[in-house]
What we know:
Chain C: It is found in: Cell membrane. Chain A is mainly alpha-helical. Chain A is 84% helix and 0% strand.
Amino acid sequence: xxxxxxxxxxxxxxxxxxxxxxxxxxxxxxxxxxxxxxxxxxxxxxxxxxxxxxxxxxxxxxxxxxxxxxxxxxxxxxxxxxxxxxxxxxxxxxxxxxxxxxxxxxxxxxxxxxxxxxxxxxxxxxxxxxxxxxxxxxxxxxxxxxxxxxxxxxxxxxxxxxxxxxxxxxxxxxxxxxxxxxxxxxxxxxxxxxxxxxxxxxxxxxxxxxxxxxxxxxxxxxxxxxxxxxxxxxxxxxxxxxxxxxxxxxxxxxxxxxxxxxxxxxxxx
Amino acid sequence: xxxxxxxxxxxxxxxxxxxxxxxxxxxxxxxxxxxxxxxxxxxxxxxxxxxxxxxxxxxxxxxxxxxxxxxxxxxxxxxxxxxxxxxxxxxxxxxxxxxxxxxxxxxxxxxxxxxxxxxxxxxxxxxxxxxxxxxxxxxxxxxxxxxxxxxxxxxxxxxxxxxxxxxxxxxxxxxxxxxxxxxxxxxxxxxxxxxxxxxxxxxxxxxxxxxxxxxxxxxxxxxxxxxxxxxxxxxxxxxxxxxxxxxxxxxxxxxxxxxxxxxx
Amino acid sequence: xxxxxxxxxxxxxxxxxxxxxxxxxxxxxxxxxxxxxxxxxxxxxxxxxxxxxxxxxxxxxxxxxxxxxxxxxxxxxxxxxxxxxxxxxxxxxxxxxxxxxxxxxxxxxxxxxxxxxxxxxxxxxxxxxxxxxxxxxxxxxxxxxxxxxxxxxxxxxxxxxxxxxxxxxxxxxxxxxxxxxxxxxxxxxxxxxxxxxxxxxxxxxxxxxxxxxxxxxxxxxxxxxxxxxxxxxxxxxxxxxxxxxxxxxxxxxxxxxxxxxxxxxxxxxxxx
Lengths: 269, 264, 272
């Protein structure tokens, strides 16, 4: 242990030679220049910045105390949020699994399918849920369907990527053994790959469900259903005390979701 | 009968791993293949069931050419060749029974495989084979809960489930302790005679090769340099196979242990 | 597993069935029933506006028809939007990373006394509990539209992530180095600088790069609710049915995210 630490220190010391030192200064300088440029160039009205703490404080004051008279509307909007997260996670599975199958190097049928799979994953992942929601609201109108589709389109990339990695990391040897029995490709997948990726599958789905709960809370801000609709409405009407209640409800929901996922994770693995 | 003629395997543009190998295995004999690591033993076995594609040559199993088979023809041939691996290659998260039944995957339909509805005859065969090797009471245990020797027995039963015409064993005892590996070797020997099944075993341990097999094939640098009965496998043969390993990529330590055991 | 299976295995009848995934039949069928009931309940209570949805496909055709080819004509607008997004992400990362160091020290049990620890943890939990978009609306409401709200939002977002991981890193440091500094008589701050920070430095740089990448992604989003950057431009394009321009923005976002992901991955590999 001590030896190891000593070695590590040595290694750290060797970093500080002349060339490295220059590189470090260059990086510092570049960062400094970037900061100066960004601060000077950005479109900020500075007096507002100095006033910001007061403004935030006064907003906080307007929110206090939370007002609970709208609790039943908030509750049903919360349910809707959970439904959006759960249904979209369930539905995503059916799309993400085939995509991960063709996006994993060791199972994809050929190069073309590999690139198709990767293209789907990348495009799904680089567009944020709320931008997907913007698109689907434009297509299907405001409502939960746009929300479900938005969450699904974002989750496909997440689940597909992680499942693809899980498939690529499997132990090759059972696959070899199944091939040696004369099993067809699909049977090899069924017996040698599916059991190996099962734990990863459950872990990923649970993780994504947790994330989707959070994502679903903001969908309503662009009209895609859930608690966000109510939040936006209350902000537009300056009903700050109701906003405070909604924020509290969201925190409770997120904490419940986290607690449930940690229980599920322990059960499954 | 297995008949290999002029088998060549070359990976990319490198020196061939197998250089025109000829081997004939008849009847129900247990043949051991010895040689230093890198001699091409594993490649030879994998060429037979085409887990590795041979570059050229011919492999005939009971008169049936195996090289150049494709698709379902290849799969039909593979199910007639059982294989046991060094690392057992079980599916850890499935039960012992599922692992054993997976030997029938070449025979059952995809739907049967998916729902685990194997024909009753397969299940009977599985139970009787598992009883034969003494693992029937583990049927519903998960494969990763078993010890090494038990796992290799599961792998042997899985291979036998294929109703193979030949059994290949690639270093079946290399991951086991000495006592268990002797048990597995004698199991393979007696199964071969009970089922009149030819068995090809890659093995490092020359003592075990002498004790449990009827014929020893010595390989070096992709060529066969010894073929005979255990009693003829003398110090000269041993030196020819293992002695003065000059190939730089091999660790000289590995072949040393069988040499010592053999001379002891 | 279940007693039934063991018995059948031992009998000469030789029946074998796959042991079920969940051993208890009540739980097994109960789960199936609950799932079905849930699906029915969810689909029947969710307010789907089928008439509006039915219009969706022709609309989608119109939108994508309008989106092709993407128009890069308003390059100036595109450039200012992305520039602002980058500035927001960059400044928020710098601020967030700087602030996250003291907060991480406060939230690490091994270097902070209990009351401070509780304060530090609370700060982290508060900054993590809301989606950045919600934080952004609140800041927009408080300090007005513009990049200022974006910077505040993403600073909070960065603190939540970087401080949390950094605190965990501090809790796992090699304590021997701290003791060594203590034994030469260094004070609290000196121990931090010599005994703790060198150990977490590589991790901190890696986290900062990662955070810059995710702030860049998030900056596109917080703009949608008015916190500055390209998100606002995108929102406007959608609002004005300028689908060709919106599509151009989307393509640029994807391209920039891919580049930034690659870059941040490359830097992290270099540092580690």
